[in-house]
Amino acid sequence: MNLIDGIKGNKFVVFGRAGMDMFAEPMGTKSEFAESFRSDLGGSSANICAGLCKLGSVASLVTSVSDDAVGRFCINRLNYYGVGTEYVKSVTGEFRTSLAIYESCIDHFQNVIYRNGAADFEVKPSEMDEVDYSQFTALITAGTVFAGQPSRDATFRAFQNARARGIPVIFDIDYRPYSWPSPQVASEVLSRAGEESDMIVGNDEEFGFMAGGVDKGLNKARDLASAGNRLVIYKMGEEGAITLYNNDEIKTGIFPTQAIKPVGAGDSFMAGLLSSLASGYDLKDSVIRGSACAAIVVSLPGCAPAMPDEDQLNNFINNSLIKDL
């Protein structure tokens, strides 16, 4: 099936990490002065899943978590948000589920991430053959899954399996330098992932990194869009986004908001964009709705718990003005 039909099927299999988020309370408290933290689900791919499910889509996560209390916490929270966990495996040994500790204050924001011996990198290529791709209409992955082995080879194997069954591949670049052995490896691997995808979402810095310079990022996005007729979304922060598809360039703005943190926006954007396309909105309106989701999430504590449902999203859009480019 083609990309848009796959998205409209509204059943997503998502590859990448789940983790535990701990954010300082009350809002505005710096982590080092906090006396209490709230915990919830985190990790880019898990956040996308939670966002999709809260907006009425079907999503299952493929990952590994540590066989301990933190890993089980993540599985429980995935289930709470309605995310399918049939392909979430527990791994023993010294591997650990990722932990992020951050705060709800934008000035001098701190996000401390513990990723040593990450359990989600332990997904194996052979496990990709166990996924029942017939139950899904599109595959999503975040770029962090490619930063280590064997999960890198496993996800490329999943790409092959999905393509063999006619399922489109959606790629969120999500470049995190701290996860990679070197910038050169990251550039090569992420470029390959982009070339093997039907849809690519990233920001100007991520496309610039893949191209060898921020000033070359937009041309890189244009090249990827024109080669293979891909849907490419080039995000520019406060400057909005440029959507490249079918030789068209669609420019959209953002919703100004009172941000209390900078994290979670990209995950929420992806969920809002895809769920809106699945619901029948056109491409421009779907990008705008994704931008609204991003604005909502950065204005609230946490990531997964801040993802809006359909009523919250529609209410926000009806009572907010978008900033045009």
Can you lay out the helices and strands and say which pair or pack?
Layout: H1 3-9, E1 11-15, E2 19-25, E3 36-42, H2 44-54, E4 58-66, H3 69-80, E5 84-91, E6 98-102, E7 111-114, H4 125-128, E8 138-142, H5 151-164, E9 169-172, H6 183-195, E10 199-203, H7 204-211, H8 217-226, E11 231-235, E12 241-245, E13 248-252, H9 265-278, H10 283-298, H11 310-318
Helix pairs in contact: 1-9, 2-9, 7-8, 9-10
Key features?
11 helices; 23% strand; single chain; 9-stranded mixed sheet; 4-stranded mixed sheet; 13 strands; UDP-N-acetylmuramoyl-L-alanine:D-glutamate ligase; alpha/beta; 325 residues
Describe, in plain words, how this protein is organized in 3D.
- By secondary structure, the chain is an alpha/beta fold.
- It has one domain: Ribokinase (UDP-N-acetylmuramoyl-L-alanine:D-glutamate ligase, 3-Layer(aba) Sandwich), CATH 3.40.1190.
- It contains eleven helices and 13 strands.
- It has helices at about 5-10, 45-55, 70-80, 125-130, 150-165, 185-195, 205-210, 215-225, 265-280, 285-300, 310-320, and strands spanning about 10-15, 20-25, 35-40, 60-65, 85-90, 100, 110-115, 140, 170, 200-205, 230-235, 240-245, 250.
- A nine-stranded mixed β-sheet has the order 5-4-1-8-9-10-11-12-13, sandwiched between helices.
- Strand 12 (about 240-245) and strand 13 form a beta hairpin.
- The radius of gyration is 18 Å and the shape is globular.
- It starts with a helix and ends in a 7-residue tail after the last helix.
